[in-house]
Amino acid sequence: MIPPIASRFVAGETAAEALDHTRAVNRDGVKVILNLLGEHYHERGPADEDTEAYLRLVEDIDGSDLDACVSVKPSQIGIDVGDDVFEENLGRICEAAAERDQFVWVDIEDATTTDATLDAFERWAREYPGQVGLALQANLKRSHDDIERLADVPGKVRLVKGAYDEDPEISWKQKEAVNRSYRELLSYMFEHFDDGEIAVGSHDPEMLDHAKELHEEYGTDFEIQMLMGVRDDTQRELAADGYEVWQYAPYGAKWFSYFYRRVRERKENLTFALRAVVGR
Ligand SMILES: Cc1cc2nc3c(=O)[nH]c(=O)nc-3n(C[C@H](O)[C@H](O)[C@H](O)COP(=O)(O)OP(=O)(O)OC[C@H]3O[C@@H](n4cnc5c(N)ncnc54)[C@H](O)[C@@H]3O)c2cc1C
């Protein structure tokens, strides 16, 4: 069982628990993106196992009345084994989801995997138009070229600031530079993308305000995505205000390192965790 200290950020150890969480979150008008925790598999066995787990999850979602979809990590379904393994496994998940009219998100990982991730995404987004989405990192300098390529692909893009510590030659390191890049990429998306192809993956009020202003200017529809346990009240408020809000909710037995990352990245998360330990 996930200890209460971690259950703010992780939706349970099993798919059944994650679906229960989804039901509760849906009640507040917030939709859920489910991610089975797991990454960096260097052998085919675990990559195929997690692919099978996603196929079962897609079936479970289909058999429910939940507003949910899945998000997969490339290194979880085989990119470290071979680009072809990743592409094949992603194709299996996209096919199963598309048959059930469900959406599949592809997370983006460190910069060594960007090319192969974009290629696989493009292949399956063209095969299943409007059913597949890809995360793009504003901290990577190359994203300004990649966004032009993605504008022609019939899928969604989730713009995030970027969670990986990349080389300064290929990435912006200063917070302000990353924020500037985020704003520029978002502006490009609102100008060139179609309705429903833009996801703002950020907790930053400034980025959300920028998206709202761009929506006023261009009229393009967009959705907002935030992590489970981060600004949960804001997620509910935005949904009540009529925005399409998706909560990214990870689950699974490998919850510890994810939880540890969340606690380390922000002082108030650490305070929250310590309070839970001392019971105050
Ligand atoms: C749905 C989703 C999916 C993601 N997928 C990927 C991915 O595939 N690949 C990847 O590299 N990264 C991914 N990320 C992570 C992302 O790249 C950032 O590392 C992460 O979102 C932090 O950046 P931020 O935009 O939220 O703003 P930050 O720069 O971290 O914070 C900016 C401001 O946001 C507000 N804020 C942030 N956190 C909190 C909090 N806990 N409580 C209150 N206010 C807060 C504060 O006002 C803060 O000053 C994803 C993030 C989300 C939300």
Describe this structure as you would to a colleague.
- It is a single chain.
- This protein has helices at 15-26, 44-62, 83-99, 114-127, 143-151, 175-192, 205-218, 232-240, 256-265, 267-278; strands at residues 31-36, 68-72, 104-106, 132-137, 156-160, 198-201, 222-227, 244-251.
- With 280 residues, it is α/β, with parallel strands linked by helices.
- Helix 2 (44-62) packs parallel to helix 3 (83-99) and helix 9 crosses helix 10 (267-278).
- 40% of the residues are buried.
- Bound molecules: flavin-adenine dinucleotide.
- Residues 107-108, 135, 137, 160-164, 201-205, 207, 225-227, 230-231, 248, 266, 269 line the site of flavin-adenine dinucleotide.
The biggest beta sheet reads: 8 strands, parallel, barrel
What fraction, in percent, of the residue positions are helical? 40-55%
Low-confidence stretches: none
Q: In total, how many beta strands?
A: 8
The third-level CATH topology is TIM Barrel
Number of domains: 1
**How far is the first residue's CA from the last residue's CA?**
21 Å
Number of helix segments?
10
Q: What proportion strand?
A: 15-25%
Average predicted local confidence, pLDDT:
95
What is the string of helix and strand elements?
Answer: HEHEHEHEHEHEHEHEHH
Give the radius of gyration. Answer: 18 Å
Q: What's the CATH class label? A: Alpha Beta
Instruction: Give the CATH architecture.
Output: Alpha-Beta Barrel
Structural class: alpha/beta
- Cross-sheet strand order for the largest sheet: 1-2-3-4-5-6-7-8
* Global morphology: globular
Ligands, ions, cofactors: flavin-adenine dinucleotide
